[in-house]
Amino acid sequence: MSTTAVAPTVDERVLTVVLDRAHARFFELTAAGMVELTSLHSPAMRGGKFHSDRQGGPGWGEHAYHDRIREEERRHYAAIAEQLERLQRLHGVTGFVLAGPGGTGAALQCTLSPALAERVIGTAKLNPTEVTAARVQTTIAPLLRQHQLGAERKVVTTMLEGLGTGRAENGVRGVLRALAKGQVRELLVREGARATGLRCATSGRLVPSSADCLGEGEPIPVSDLVAEASAEARRQGATVTVIRDPEAAKAVETLGALLRFG
């Protein structure tokens, strides 16, 4: 698998938190690149190690010390989760990568609410005191690629299962018809696909041939029908997913769609 840095599609925003026991740094990856957003520091509570508090009997100080460590960790993870919630609301984040030394990222994931945990793409090993935005992007690239391919295969399978049920379309003509009715919930675009077509002057509808504009005004040539359809889908609030996985892309006849209603 290639480790080349992978940028999300225009409809995705990925957030990476790099943490250790006391620090957390937050990075956002968009189509424009990786940027650091903010950071937080959770100072440890004051007090010595367990051997300085053993008046309560053998082992008592050690028990209190480890309780304190667990409480510090709980508070730190809670502060990180609160920041993730806030950044998700502000930035429309669609996925998280949790990174840190050892199993820190996995430990944080176990403490997240179900709503946050279901958005976790994966975990990685990074040190928050040394990391750079470029290093974060390079490190998480394989995770993003694996996640992206899995999501593409899943959405193509959903499309194929929905054909003939009023829940999906496959092929330029059917997808454009659904787009004109505002039915498209998610537009699937085979990577590199291009097609010529037309826009009917009166209705504004995108069509694959001039015969489709009968009664809807003069057909106006469109040089890149795929790009026009993608732009129209976004204007309608639909998600646009580019299918890059070679096997999944074979099933998409230039354009596919999941529909809002039949």
Explain the overall architecture.
By secondary structure, the protein is α/β, with parallel strands linked by helices. Helices cover 37% and strands 24% of the residues. The chain has seven helices and twelve strands. It has helices at 60-91, 104-111, 114-117, 133-162, 172-180, 225-235, 246-249; strands spanning 14-19, 23-30, 33-41, 95-99, 120-124, 168-170, 184-190, 197-200, 206-207, 219-222, 239-243, 255-259. Strands 3-2-1-4-5 form a five-stranded mixed β-sheet, sandwiched between helices. 29% of the residues are buried. Residues 1-5 and 45-57 have low confidence and may be disordered.
Which labels suit this protein?
alpha/beta, 5-stranded mixed sheet, 24% strand, elongated, disordered N terminus
* Tally of strands: 12
Largest sheet: 5 strands, mixed
Q: What sort of overall outline do the alpha carbons produce when their principal axes are compared?
A: elongated
Low-confidence blocks of residues: 1-5, 45-57
User: Between the first and last Cα atoms, what is the distance in angstroms?
Assistant: 39 Å
Q: Which sequence of strands runs across the widest sheet?
A: 3-2-1-4-5
If helices are DSSP runs of H or I spanning 4 or more residues, what is the number of helices? 7
CA radius of gyration is 25 Å
Compute the average pLDDT.
Answer: 86
Helicity, in percent? 25-40%
Instruction: Determine the strand fraction and express it as a percent band.
Output: 15-25%
In N-to-C order, the SSE pattern is: EEEHEHHEHEHEEEEHEHE
Structure class: alpha/beta
